[in-house]
Every structure is written in structure tokens, then in C-alpha cells.
Amino acid sequence: MNRYLLILVVSLLCCTAAPAQQEYVIGEGDLLKITVYDQPDLITEVRVSADGRIAFPLIGEVMVSNLSVAEAEKAIARLLEEGYIIHPHVAIFISEYKSKKVTVLGEVAKPGIVVLRGASTLMEVLSDAGGITQNAGDAIVIQRKSVAGDGKKEKDEVSVVVDTKRLFEDGDVTANIPVQNGDSIYVPKAAFVYVNGEVRTPGAYKITKGLTVLKSITIAGGFTPKASESRTRIIRKSEKGEETIKAKMDDLVRPDDVILVPESLF
Question: Which fold has domain 192-261?
């Protein structure tokens, strides 16, 4: 990540951090710290139960599940105002986020469950998962349940594909999409081409869009003085097994291709 993209990311996080808690929808397992202005005896820390309720002094049980923080504050204030406190000012702080989770798998440093802390973006979640590895491919796939009423059943899943380069290198803000509770985020492994023989740096190289034989050889340091460019071959896997074909320099490479540059006969 270059310096300018880092600055952009920090700016975005600073801009979105403040409203994130207000937009967060409270759910089962969240730990809430609730205060009422000028009422220290009412300071309460309570976890949301399985049925979405909390117990609060004076008013008893309150349903808070599926409410935003602001909506829950108003609900508690309204109940307190009914015979207990004049014009109460209620503030809720989420001490622990537990109810909203996503799964992150594939080429990340720490695959597994990531708990969402308020309104979260794809980049924030990937950061919580330790970031993507060097072997990550050029796309990130998000599987999520579709919204009922859009012509699909509620349990149908939709796929959202995000271009890795747009997200991390180009600084495209539109690629840093919000994630949703229950999302499954998969970072596939990149495909590789293998360049061997008379090149300066033989090895495996990540396939990027539009990668040709010539570009692959260039990435591998170029031909050595002993190389026979005209006799370059591609060893390619197919349904029939491995086949060896004559390579043209502008041929696009395929996953797991082996580019073999032989030594010149003269």
C-alpha cells in the first residue's frame, strides 16, 4: 500500500468512525454500557439476552434487539420519562460487539470469524483478519444472503466480486464496500505461471490480467545470453494430460503453465 493510499484510508476511517456506533444495529450478545445524565445510580452494564432484551433499573426489561444505538437510547428515555425522570438524557456505549459476524477465508493472515465493530467496510474486515497474503488473487468474493422482495427467496445467496487492485492499489473508494452480518468473504489464491530454463530469475510468478509469455519472461529477468528465444515452449495441463506447445511471445499464459526457455544449440 503506497503512502497516498494509506492517507486516504486513514481519512476515511476518521470520517466514518464517529457515526458507526449510531448506525450499528444492536443484537444478541452485545454488551451495553448505559448512562443517564445526572443519574449516576442508573449506570448499567448489561448484555443483550437471546431474546433481544436487557434489564434496566426502574423500568425492567426493554427490547433493544434490531434497534440502532440512537433508537435504543430513545426507547429507554421514553420509558424513564413515564413517571420516573423528567427529560432523561440516555447514552449507550457498546462495550463489546458480539452479535454481528462475518467469515473470512482464503489468502488472509488470520482466516476465521471476524466480529463487526459497528458499521464496517471490506478493508476494515480484511485488516482485522491480518490483511491479504502475497499469494492473494486479483478478486475478492463476498457471498451474502439476498434481500427478500428483490425477486429472490430470502435464503438465496448473491455474490459480490471486488477487484483487489482497485481496493488496495488504486484507492478506489467505491471498492471499499460495506460488509453485512453473515457475509462470507473469500480471498482466492492467485494463479501462477512457472518460468524455467534460460532466464535470469527462474521461478513462479503471479498471473495478472493480460499476462503474456513475453511479459512473464521479462518479469523473470529476461533471456540469458544462452537462451534460444525461438525454441521457447509452453508445457500446459489439459484434460488429456500435459502437452507441449510452441510459444508465441504474445500468447496469454494460463494458470499452471510452465514456460521453458531452452539453451541455444550454437
Answer: Outer membrane lipoprotein wza fold like (3.10.560)
Set of cell numbers at residue 111? 482466516
User: In CATH, what is the architecture of 100-187?
Assistant: Roll (3.10)
25-96 shares its CATH topology with 192-261: no
Is the domain covering 25-96 a CATH 2.120.10.30 domain? no
Enter the pTM of the model.
Answer: 0.72
Cross-strand partners of 227: 263
Question: What pLDDT, in 10s, does the model give residues 208-248?
Answer: 889 999 999 999 999 999 999 999 999 999 888 899 999 99
Strands 112-115 and 139-145, by their bridges, are unpaired
Paired with 145 in beta bridges are 157
Q: Residue 171, by phi and psi: left (phi above 0), alpha (psi -120 to 50) or beta? A: left
